[in-house]
Amino acid sequence: MTTVVPVLTQWFGYMDSDDPDRVLAMIADDFTMSVQFSTGAGQSAEFVGDRAGLVAYLAQREKSTLIHHIDVGTVAGEYELVVGRTTRDGAFEASFNATAQLDSAGAVRRLLIARTPEISFVR
Does the pLDDT value for residue 1 go beyond 60? Predict the structure, then answer.
């Protein structure tokens, strides 16, 4: 497997920045997403929707506090898939996987992200 996943690398780079709203320029007209966000101990929230759902998700998240690290990634046709982790001030916070389906122009059509602090793939 590779870690060369250009779209998701850019996506998480934007999400980790002071201006995460730049991801809005990366989505297709028919964009749909689901972010399953666990805070641990069985507590979680799901953020779903189209462009408006992504705008709402962006509005509620902390800016420039978490760093996404892609540990494994692959491209399979129109899909990019990754397994990674987030850190806060250098310390492990959560593991995540993400799957993006891209359109013919490379825009994100579908996005599924799941994260939890309960499992770490780091040895």
Answer: no
